[in-house]
Amino acid sequence: MAKVTKDMIIADVLRMDRETAPIFMRHGLHCLGCPASSMESIADAAMVHGLNVDALINDLNEYLASKGE
Rounded to an integer, what distance in angstroms lies between the CA atom of residue 47 and that of residue 32? Predict the structure, then answer.
C-alpha cells in the first residue's frame, strides 16, 4: 500500500490515485491543476493556504488504506 507523506508533491499523489482529488478539495486545495501543484509539496501548499496538513495526510492515507482492504 502506498503511503502519503507531507513532503510528497501534490501532482505525484494525484498520479498515484486520481480519486484523491476530492480529498484535497475537501481540505481546501482547489488548485490541483495549477502549475504549482506539480512542484509544491503537500506541506508547502497547506502552509500557504492555512490548512491542517496532518488532517489532510491522515485522510489521504485512510482513503488509500481502505482501497487495500
Answer: 15
